Amino acid sequence: MKLQITFIILACMVQMKCNAMETYNGLGTIFRNVLQEYVSPDCTKYANDDEVYKSFPFELDFNSTRRDFSNTYAMKNGNGDIIVLNINKQEYVPPSLFCLTDLQELHVHKTKFHTFDLGLPIALERLASTLKYLTISDTPIRYLPEQIGRLIYLKTLDLSNTGLTILPKSIGKLASLTYLNLCDNKLILLPSTIINTLSLQTLILDNNADLRSIQALNGHSSLKFLQADNCQIERIPRNLSQLINLYMSNNSLTDLSNIHTLGNKTNKKKLFFFDNNFIRYLSPHIRQVNNLNFLNLNYNKLYVLPMDIYEVSTLQTLYIQNNDFGDKDLQEMVARFDRTHPKLKFCYASKKSC
């Protein structure tokens, strides 16, 4: 009797193990299929874009007359091909979208890619000949594959609040890229190859709390607008010959060495924001900044301004509130600026002084 009971128990255990293995194998098969779809979706089973979007697990609004990013919608060209696809708050991004034949804009918001390591699917390279605008926001993307560099016609790349930690070296191959938004991520540094993005004009790096250096940008020949607020950057970049607007509020700057190398090959007005840093020293080279119009130095550690600043004839607005200037020094500054810059908007002690 005991032997029979033992045999029954063993038989049950074997059956349970077999069932568990079948379940495991089944899940493994599903996982492998999903992974394979993102790596290399089988596009041969779709005759046209109509069949592609019919495979999506959600409906598309084709009747939208305006760009409402809170909606999931698509737009077609005259041939019936989808050229704009906006996905918002869906369960997942369907791998079959990479089979669309003329997709020019892809926008993904609050919708996950089912990659096992939270990377952007390498199947993205299938859109290399058509994609011009790519936006992914509020969606986990820890890294970009090297294949991103094959999107040679991409003009805008917007990856905000994705948890991105690193950029691939191939980012430098994006020859058509003019706008790059990487705000609200977890970047630590920029790859040296970013200097090769020869069409890049706007770069946004706000709210990357661990970003300490942007020296990889040194010598960038086309950058005009750089926003890098709320990071931990310790030094300003140098030799950005076309730079016009620079926003570096709330960082870890201690001085502004090489400020005269910013925008030195363009006569357009310069607007520089350096408030909420730890700047103790303003370089005499400030007088060499080409057409400096606006300078914000609020909330720093300045205790003296170089005499050279009174030679900046183009300066129209200067903020130096909440620094370490003495009352007598401030009075002397006001008197001197009244003589050299009678129309200057000079904010020095409180909001009432502006």
TrEMBL record:
<protein>
    <recommendedName>
        <fullName>Disease resistance R13L4/SHOC-2-like LRR domain-containing protein</fullName>
    </recommendedName>
</protein>
<dbReference type="InterPro" id="IPR003591">
    <property type="entry name" value="Leu-rich_rpt_typical-subtyp"/>
</dbReference>
<dbReference type="InterPro" id="IPR001611">
    <property type="entry name" value="Leu-rich_rpt"/>
</dbReference>
<dbReference type="InterPro" id="IPR055414">
    <property type="entry name" value="LRR_R13L4/SHOC2-like"/>
</dbReference>
<dbReference type="InterPro" id="IPR032675">
    <property type="entry name" value="LRR_dom_sf"/>
</dbReference>
<dbReference type="GO" id="GO:0005737">
    <property type="term" value="C:cytoplasm"/>
</dbReference>
<dbReference type="InterPro" id="IPR050216">
    <property type="entry name" value="LRR_domain-containing"/>
</dbReference>
<feature type="domain" description="Disease resistance R13L4/SHOC-2-like LRR">
    <location>
        <begin position="130"/>
        <end position="263"/>
    </location>
</feature>
<keyword id="KW-0433">Leucine-rich repeat</keyword>
<feature type="signal peptide">
    <location>
        <begin position="1"/>
        <end position="20"/>
    </location>
</feature>
<keyword id="KW-0677">Repeat</keyword>
<keyword id="KW-0732">Signal</keyword>
<dbReference type="Pfam" id="PF23598">
    <property type="entry name" value="LRR_14"/>
</dbReference>
